[in-house]
Amino acid sequence: MSGEFSSADAKKLVSLARKSIEYYSAAGRFLSEPCEEKKFLEKRGVFVTLHTFPERELRGCIGFPYPVKPLWSAVIEAAAEAGFHDPRFEQVKASEMEKILVEISILTLPEKANAGDLPGKIEIGKNGLIVKRKYRSGLLLPQVAAEEGWDAETFLEHCCIKAGIPTNSWKLKGTDTFKFQAQVFSEKAPKGIVEEA
């Protein structure tokens, strides 16, 4: 889905995410930042991912898989949540922000992928996955499989692990799998140039 948002859009959103984290660190509440640009006021699924610099180790990742909030508001909330409420990590300290990369993934609407030859319907680096079974669900962004060097079946298995269900659950009746795409923008250095991944 590349091309929907421009590099100028990306710079604004990444800057907003960084500002949101810094504000939440100081004030303990979400940033209130007005926006009048129509494309940012449309509801979109979005994730904000934080990496350490230069190691590029995951430092937080939270978002909204479905378009439940305007993109602008969703970035503000997801950024703060990634920095302070990802249960896998300690809260980000204000001093850390000089060594953190901010990445934003703007999602398409997830579409159900029927079983059968499911791995054959997944394009590594292009499709992200959501696996749902009963009350559990797991989501992995498209860039994860490419970064890890996984094939489609391994990607499905890791999405099951993320959901806290057995790795073969994607093959079972009663499990729903959805795929989506994302336009991904990331800082190359903290507060530096923002590029599309």
Automatic annotation (TrEMBL):
Record-linked SUPFAM superfamilies: AMMECR1-like (SSF143447)
Residues spanning the membrane: none
InterPro entries xref list: AMMECR1, AMMECR1_dom_sf, AMMECR1_domain, AMMECR1_N, AmmeMemoSam_A, Uncharacterised_MJ0810
Domain AMMECR1: 8-196
Gene3D superfamilies: Hypothetical protein ph0010, domain 1 (3.30.700.20), Hypothetical protein ph0010, domain 2 (3.30.1490.150)
Pfam families: AMMECR1
NCBIfam families: AmmeMemoSam_A, TIGR00296 family protein
Record PANTHER family: AMME SYNDROME CANDIDATE GENE 1 PROTEIN, AMMECR1 HOMOLOG
Protein name, as recorded: Protein JW744_00500
